[in-house]
Amino acid sequence: MAGELTEVTVREDDEFAAFVEQSGSRLCETAFWLCRDWGLAQDLTQTTFIKVYLSWRRIKHDDPYPYCKQVLLRTYLDHKRLKSSAEVQTDMVPDRPAAADAAELRITLLDALGHLSPRDRAIIVLRYWEDHSVQSVAELLDLSPGVVKTQSMRALAILRVLLGEDEAVPAPPV
Fold it and tell me: Which of the residue ranges 59-68, 125-134, 164-173 would you say has the lowest mean pLDDT?
């Protein structure tokens, strides 16, 4: 009996190791787009795999990648919530820099994503980087589809402004 249990455990560990090998880089890339820091992305991915390993016996029969991605998203959002308590409030808002030419105003998508809230960033990455449907994003983040649509519309508007796309939009003809 003990030998059989050990054999099952070794086989499950091998299956988990194969899953990590297959999906690790894809999951870490998603984590990077969420947090914009490779070190933190690796930490989030590692924490995700630890949590998934603890549930491996229960989830291995289904497709484990969607479950793993959901764990990553929740780990990321939990991390951001924990960090928000360490923020320091100030009474003074810094002045905005003077307007420069259009080339200087353009920032990278990665920097622009940093201006979004963690949940909005997760919605944008899932919808437009990973090409998920509204319904699947809603399920992954435990939101209603209406919230996903509204938040993605608002987040895209913010990104457009940050990237300078709304500055040269001509007025519609009369």
Answer: 164-173
Cβ atoms of 37 and 24 closer than 8 Å: no
Residue pair 52/94 in contact by the 8 Å Cβ criterion: no
pTM, two decimal places: 0.59
Two structure tokens written together for 95:
């002045």
8 A C-beta contact, residue 127 and residue 152: yes
In terms of C-beta distances under 8 Å and separation of at least 24 residues, what long-range contacts does 73-80 make, across chains too? 73/34, 73/122, 73/126, 73/140, 73/141, 75/44, 75/47, 75/48, 75/51, 76/31, 76/34, 76/35, 76/44, 76/118, 76/122, 77/118, 77/119, 77/122, 79/35, 79/40, 79/44, 80/118
Beta-carbon contacts of 29 under 8 Å, excluding residues fewer than 6 positions away, are: 41
Tokens representing 82 are 């924990």
